[in-house]
Amino acid sequence: MADLTPTPDRPGLHVSKPSPSAPAQASAVCHCGARATAHGDDQVRRLVQGWEANHGPAHSKGGHQ
């Protein structure tokens, strides 16, 4: 499988949860330069919510430039 970790050259959001009992992990890199990581289901959920509200798709909806 290819490495799906976001980088400045390949911005995006990557979330993984290897098994139902394992904690989720996430990493995000936006083309605006913002980056974040999270470990644990609650932190990952907050990272995804922030990403959706402020980065990635939000940029194409008149958000940050």
Summary of the model, kept short:
This protein has 65 residues and is α+β, with helices and mostly antiparallel strands. Helix content is 22%, strand content 23%.
What is the terminal separation in angstroms?
32 Å
N-to-C SSE string, H for helix and E for strand: EEEH
Give the overall shape: globular
Low-pLDDT parts are none
Helix tally equals 1
Mean pLDDT: 88
- Order of strands side by side in the largest beta sheet? 1-2-3
State the secondary-structure class.
alpha+beta
Count of distinct strands: 3
Main sheet characteristics: 3 strands, antiparallel
Q: What's the Cα radius of gyration?
A: 12 Å
- Work out the strand percent: 15-25%
* Percent helix: 10-25%
What does this structure look like?
The protein is of the alpha+beta class. Helices cover 22% and strands 23% of the residues. The chain is built from 1 helix and 3 strands. The protein has one helix at residues 41-54, and strands at 12-16, 25-29, 35-39. A 3-stranded antiparallel sheet has the order 1-2-3, with helices on one face. It is globular, with a radius of gyration of 12 Å.
Produce the secondary structure layout.
Blueprint: E1 12-16, E2 25-29, E3 35-39, H1 41-54
Antiparallel strand pairs: 1-2, 2-3
